[in-house]
Amino acid sequence: MTDCILEHIQKSSKKGKKLLAILLDPDKTKLQEISIVSKRIENLKANFIFVGGSFVEKGITDVFVQKLKEFTNIPIILFPGDYSQVTNKADGLLFLSLISGRNPEYLIEQQIKAVPFLKNSNLEIIPTGYILIDGGINSSVLKISKTTAISQNNIELTVETAIAGMYKGKQLIYLEAGSGAKFPVNSKLITEVKKNINIPLIVGGGIRTKEQLKNAYKNGADVVVIGTAFENNINLSI
Ligand SMILES: CC(C)=CCC/C(C)=C/CC/C(C)=C/CC/C(C)=C/COP(=O)(O)OP(=O)(O)O
Ligand SMILES: O=P(O)(O)OC[C@@H](O)CO
Ligand SMILES: [Mg+2]
Predict the structure, then answer these.
(1) What ipTM was reported for this prediction?
(2) Does 238 map to a domain?
(3) What is the mean pLDDT of the chain?
(4) Which ligand number lies closest to the CA of residue 230?
(5) Does any domain span residue 224?
(6) Ligand 1 lined by 178 (C-beta under 6 Å)
(7) pLDDT tens-digit map of 2-39
(8) Closest-lying ligand to the alpha carbon of 87?
(9) Coil, strand, or helix at residue 78?
(10) What residues bind sn-glycerol 1-phosphate, as annotated (predicted)?
């Protein structure tokens, strides 16, 4: 596989073309639903399907991605909560480091554990700095990673964390309010982070409406991720 996903995101970001990713959690979408779910995602003109969850059992993601591939050509990007979710059947992998946290397991251990699965794979590996922002809930990521989120008001720390991620060589920064967040990442935070980095910005967590989507784009998100709102209503129009 050539490096086409990251390039696509970088080029779109430069042109100001906004991208949409729908997040599917293999724990929450049944295999029998994949054909209809794929159609709906195509109707939404999503650019990517992210696949991942915090608690997905080993082996499930592999079967899930294989089934998705039967129904859609939209690029599938792994967004794993754990190295055991890596499957060669996807197109790309967000090689996440939880840089808002101070838990070595999610800063380097998980990444090392993934290497045996990645060494001979064709997956496009995309170094991604993952930053948790307080979205008003005790999200699955917070629970599993045993880390704390950065306050929505702490612009300075968020911006400095994003810049440090960029200096460390991350190719994408992902601002995450947590799946099912009460409050999505606020406008000011998105604007300030975007102003201070020259790599594309992904924003997700708690985005449920067209207005929230447009707002995230307007403030500088290059890719917006929607999971819960689509899970709750696959006929969602955004
Ligand atoms: C690099 C590799 C192979 C793995 C990275 C492992 C790391 C560092 C993960 C970051 C921390 C983490 C647990 C991220 C999970 C991201 C994710 C899939 C969130 C989606 O939300 P859900 O966990 O499904 O939440 P709900 O189930 O509550 O909706
Ligand atoms: O489920 P939602 O709240 O849309 O969040 C999407 C994604 O950013 C979660 O990791
Ligand atoms: Mg979820």
Answers:
(1) 0.97
(2) no
(3) 97
(4) 2
(5) yes
(6) no
(7) 569 999 999 999 999 999 999 999 999 999 999 999 99
(8) 1
(9) strand
(10) 174-180, 205-206, 227-228
Atom nearest to 181 CA in ligand 2: 3
Task: Tell me the β-bridge partners of 94.
Answer: 126
> How many independent structural domains does the chain possess?
1
pTM (2 d.p.): 0.98
- Domain extent for 105: 4-232
Residue 19 domain flag: yes
Q: Which secondary-structure segment (H or E) carries 95?
A: strand 92-98
The pLDDT tens digits of the residues spanning 79-137 come to 999 999 999 999 999 999 999 999 999 999 999 999 999 999 999 999 999 999 999 99
**Residues making up the binding site:** 25, 54, 174-180, 205-206, 227-228
Residue 213 has pLDDT above 80, yes or no: yes
Q: What CATH code is carried by the domain that includes residue 186?
A: 3.20.20.390
In a domain, 211, yes or no: yes
Shortest-distance Cα residue to atom 14 of ligand 1: 81
For 215, the enclosing helix (H) or strand (E) is helix 210-219
pLDDT, one tens digit per residue, over 43-61 is 999 999 999 999 999 999 9
Contact predicate 203/223, CB 8 Å? yes
In order of 62, 135, 158, 188, 226, the CA distances from 153 in angstroms are 39, 11, 9, 9, 23
**Distance from C-alpha of 68 to C-alpha of 122, rounded to nearest angstrom:** 18
